[in-house]
Amino acid sequence: MNEGRKEIVQIIFVFVGVLFTIKLFFVQVLDNRYAELADSNAILREVEYPFRGLITDRNGKLIVYNTPEYDLLITKKDVKELDSAKFCEVFGITIEQLRERFKDYKARKAKKEVSDVKPAIFIRQLSNLDFARIQERIDEFSGFQIQPRTTRAYSTFALANSMGYVSEITKRQLEHDSTNVYKQRDYIGQSGLESYYEKDLSGKRGVRFKFKDVSGIEKGSFLKGKLDTLSVPGKDLTTTIDIALQEYGERLFKGKVGSLVAIEPSTGEILAIISGPSYDPTLLTGRKFSSNFLTISSDTTKPLFTRPLMAMYPPGSIFKIIQTLIGLEEGVFNYDTRFPCDKSLVNCHNHPSPADLHGAIQYSCNPYFHQAFRRIINQGKSPNTFTDSRIGLDHWRDYVSRFGLGAPLGVDLPSEKGGLIPSSRNYNRIYGEGRWKFSTIYSLSIGQGEMLVTPMQMANLAAILANKGYFYTPHMVKSIKGDQIDPRYRVRHETGIDTAFYTFVTDAMTDAISGTAPRALIPGMTICGKTGTAQNPQGEDHSVFMAFAPKENPKIAIAVYVENAGWGGRAAASIASLMIERYVTGEVKRPALEEYVLKNEFGDRPARTKPAQTVIALE
Amino acid sequence: MRNEISISNKMDWATVAIYMAMLLFGWLNIFAAVYDTDTNNSLFVATFDFGVMPLQMKQFIFIVTSLIIMLIILIVDMRFYETFAYVIFAGIMFLLLLVPLIGKEVAGNKSWLGVGAFGIQPSEFAKFATALAVAKFIGSVGFRMDQVRNQVVLFVLIGIPVMLILLQKDFGTAMVFSVFLLVFYREGQSPFFLLVGIGMAIIFILTLLVKNNWILFAIIGGIWMMVIYLNRKRKFKHLIIITLGAIVLIGTMQSVEIVFSKLPIHHQKRIMVMLNPDSDPTGYGWNVTQSKIAIGSGGFAGKGFLNGTQTKFDFVPEQSTDFIFCTIGEEHGWLGSLLVVGLFMGLLTRLLFIAERQKSRFARSYGYAVASIFFFHFAVNIGMTLGLFPVIGIPLPFFSYGGSSLWAFTVLLFILLKLDAHRGQVLERL
Fold first, then answer.
1. Are both A381 and A519 inside the same structural domain?
2. What's the angle, vertex CA A195, arms to CA A68 and CA A580, rounded to 5?
3. Which of B132, B209, B315, B422 has the fewest Cβ atoms within 10 angstroms?
4. Mean pLDDT for the stretch of residues B98-127
5. Is residue A540 in a domain?
């Protein structure tokens, strides 16, 4: 009667044993999730954020430093029986704000930005004051911890744009980070020097692994601290900036749109770099970052746009200097060559005619350079005038590029633009091969047409003239805490044009100044400069001035662009002159000129602050 | 003297070896579960103050006393157990009855009898006492399982301890007695009870899981028609019994809501958590979630002895008692877990083998009771740590910390081994 029953009992026993074995295999061997959960349970990962490198000016004056801030982190799964009334009292928030924080947390969780098992920011950047009060009582709230970090602080409002800002790494950046160094919530340099030198400034995060028990109490180091790493502070940067000069320049630039770049010609070190309008760098630190960033980035005057490197203008009359140097080196004309001021070729203003080369520079004679440029382009290398123009243009372009034009210089700042010096290929694309000749491209002769230059390149040109034929790539960092800067900033770039020709053009520039920009003259100092006017079809022309001084022993080379301020001899030349005086003599003795600049009334029309990213002038 | 020699000759040493291995492995695991780098880091501590003694030392004392109990059981004449089965049963039942009256509370559980720091849980001993009583009744002269009167007596025999233990609100231990259905089945009870019992459990869970009761109606109806069809050639009585089973199942289904709502709230929660472990991860799901994390994090070979983080840092509750398996899973991985499952499978199949070779119905059914009780503890305890069963607080034999359970399981096991050693001396009475 009971046959087979013992087998059935056996089968039931064995069935359960096999079931457990399989289930255990799934849970223990196949599923790695549990190991991670166990680690998040028992291992406390304490991140030690490194101090970001300090930034000083060329004289060792501190510009950017660090200040402590405290984030309140939440590990949701560890939060138990939160006494919200007590929480609000300790953290100084209202119950609505607390609810808001939890709602925000939920939203971030829905977006998979945070998870319940890992600490996530709950309240961002508590102030120092909050911290002192909270530190005492943080233990009363399980699942909450305070994470100290440092944020950027600035000793000056100046240099905001080129310095850049630091903010939490974005999700996009995190996804594109190939180095795998960054973690969520890490700070990263977002623009300017902070971004360019991120690797040096950021230092290395330290991590300590500790055991914790179910109540979150630390239970000693994990694996005897074998995996722990100490944080390595970021390297300090010494910039080439003279912060006093920079501040002075920004004061002069108040209410203006444009750029200023000042370079030490003998080294290529950038003394001042101004992008107007600027912003208060402290706005982009701390708790209000997001809302401030929105305000600043949506400002129509684009304070975050680095004009000295990214704005491109036609060089205008200033380019005549380069034409002179190329022509002389090519031998297609000499100091005594005269051309009539034939206004049927290009418009000009009234001046003695026909001028020699010196006079042509002094009076900035457009027809003279039209005819001089024709000699550079059409040298009779081919009987076909189209082919001849093509050969001539490319040959000319080789020369121009030696002046650092037509391609980014390689400044140590992000997103530098290269401007544009057209080649035969550009024109072939526009007009077709063999369908353009000198008369198509003659605007280039006076720095107009399809030609664009950044203010940085223009300042570099001033440095080349000051050095009489060579330049060092402009750069903003002098040394990185003991380390040498990139050797490419120590390479001397030659233009390959005879020094004598530079002497000739700088003499002519000195003479020109008294005519075109008398405001630029500094008593007791010889200044070499050239005005320019970048034509602006959308409004008042842009005022441009390029100069270096003192003539005998150049200490500073400068380029100034003031948008919509009209003639170069007024706004730009005045600012450049004041900057030179300030830098070379250490003080300014022309309060009237200062006042003229600060008053901000240069043009015939009141200045408009409509920004121009790229203005292609029409002749 | 003759007695002694024959015992060592006929003793089932395989079972003894498994028992010893479990005691040793279990003891080391208790040490691992309570190990603390700062305060409790050596296996032996020289103290005789039971109050401050670390758990592994207490368990060591329990193990030593168990071995003494084992010797006593082996020395006592084998006829004692059958002869005094009812007396022992009555005695333990009396103790159980005392518990709600004069028992003391330990950790919220009023299931202890005792003086001072010493106490025992009579409910643990009720298992072997009931096993003896049931075996004695089944083994009695002229016993026939197909007599309704006998079946009623058997259900009364297991019903008494269940009722008394339920008075202590020890739901888990009370449930252990349901496993006697396996013994009854082996001894000739109609599979009806076993099937309906299992069926009721399944239906209970399914009703909570499946929203649409009509699906369950259809399933029960389908099975009923199939079984009726398969048994169509048999007596009309069978068909009635089958139909009765189907009605019981449908009744279960209908009463689930009511029964469920009548359960204490923590039992409701535990059942819901088993059905959906994520339903309450920090509350009632905490135990199961943490237990699975601890076991799962062990991986293939485990983190190593004393290197478990989940148990050491108290993430797993009841880690030295009901959730002791977590320590094994975490520190010894799948291999260690397999060893424990293997030891139990070895013990269970050995016990069945021993039970089957008995010459008396008494000894055989006692053997089945022993095997079934161990099986129930093994299945429910490990199933609970893996989230396969609701959290029912019953210990893993020889592994969980606790004096009463260790002594009771030792008694349970060695009475069988004693009977087995003397099986040649009894007259066949099957």
1. yes
2. 100
3. B209
4. 76
5. yes
